[in-house]
Amino acid sequence: MSKTSIAKVARHLMYQEVSARIRQLIKDKELWEQYLAPERDLAELFGVSRETLRRGLAELEREGTVARRHGQGTLVLPRRNGRVRKAAARVLVASYSQVPGGATSAMLAGLADAAGASRWSLSFANLAIPAARQEFLAALGRREVDGLLLLSMSDRTMVEEALGAWGGPAVLVDHYFEGLPLTGIIDDSEGGARAAVEHLLALGHRRIGYVEISQRERNPWRYAGYAGALRSAGVEPDESLAVKAFGSFESGQAAGQELLARTNPPTAVLAFDDLRAWGVWRAAESRGLEVGRNFALVGFGDTAAQVGFPEELSSVRFDGRELGRLAVARLADLMAGNGQPGELVKVPTELVVRRSSRDARGPAAITANGQ
Residue 150: which H helix or E strand, with range? Predict the structure, then answer.
């Protein structure tokens, strides 16, 4: 997702938080049938732009809490039947990234869309900041929220600490821990990786490399799909063909160079994501290989269009936004007392075959055909 798109998501979430804070202000100060302070003063109070404040007020006007009158200001409408309106659900979203990118941005966008439709009040905690982490745990302990969403958190110790402090409805997006009372929403990484390797096997490749993340436990499912497909074809996975790489083009390139420098190098590679795959592509070209002819390559995520690369890379596609939307739906069920925590929900994946692998037959296929 581009920086512009990320900024739009951030603004979308901010105005919802402004709406929630104004609702609380109305309730705390008993401002029914009174005018709110001028927009300039409210924007300064909440530390937001006038544009964000106005979007927040527009949200309150749509739900019937206030009426904005030209030349007069914003009037808080009377309470219905003398009762305070039901407050929006308060949900805390925690992650280790302040400005997420790639697939995480798509998840966050889906989460924001669904939360907005449910009129939830969202607040965020970046656990990479020690002070924010302490406040996050303290807020959970004080029961200041109605639900908890954990985004791309693979640290089991931290997740267990959060659940111990909270004990309420919680959903983990982009990961899953067996044995914890925590619903997990993930893409079908194992099925997607299996489909990719089966595609390469069908082309006659037997030495298939895997460029994975630096810590396999952060996503063991993709390796499981890779290894499972090989074993089903009678090929024992070779750990020397599984190379770790950080999440960058350069790391993918270095991993590709390492694999292709082996005495018996792979003729095809599955990469953990598209960014690493493009690095492998560059490494293959530097060794005189032609990707799509005498070397096959498959990525994961199908993000070429998002990051400006040509759509020539075969890749496993999944809907990151759907992960976010499902997380909101499952959390809503738990907050309503429906469903059981600990469920694992998988978003389907789909292999998209393009030039990088379509016609790149492996040695086994060439030998069998005598060509």
Answer: strand 147-151
